[in-house]
Amino acid sequence: MPGWGRFDDDELIGIIAFHDDWVEQLYVLPGAQGRGVGTELLDVAKGAFERLELWTFQRNSPARRFYEARGFALVEQTDVARNEEREPDARYLWTCKPLDLRPTVV
Description:
By secondary structure, the protein is an alpha+beta fold. The protein has a single domain, classed as Gcn5-related N-acetyltransferase (GNAT) (Aminopeptidase), CATH 3.40.630.30. The protein is built from two helices and six strands. The protein has helices at 37-48, 61-69; strands spanning 3-8, 11-19, 22-28, 51-57, 73-77, 89-95. The radius of gyration is 15 Å and the shape is globular.
């Protein structure tokens, strides 16, 4: 699984790991949050793929705001039955082209 790290001098302050077009992990140390580290790491993945998907917990409001502010759209919410953490999930999708998520009338 490809991954990238962001360092501040010798300290690893953030990582991103992705497999195909899925962001598997994105972590930034609390003391480094709000300094653009997460955005830089996410931009690495965006530069490698035309679309990205990821899961986060529904209750993780800071992560959800972060992804939404960077162009990710909420495409699915699940109950606790679909993951080992037993926590409701939210699936996000980003594409290099804007998504039109309006309902279609047939």
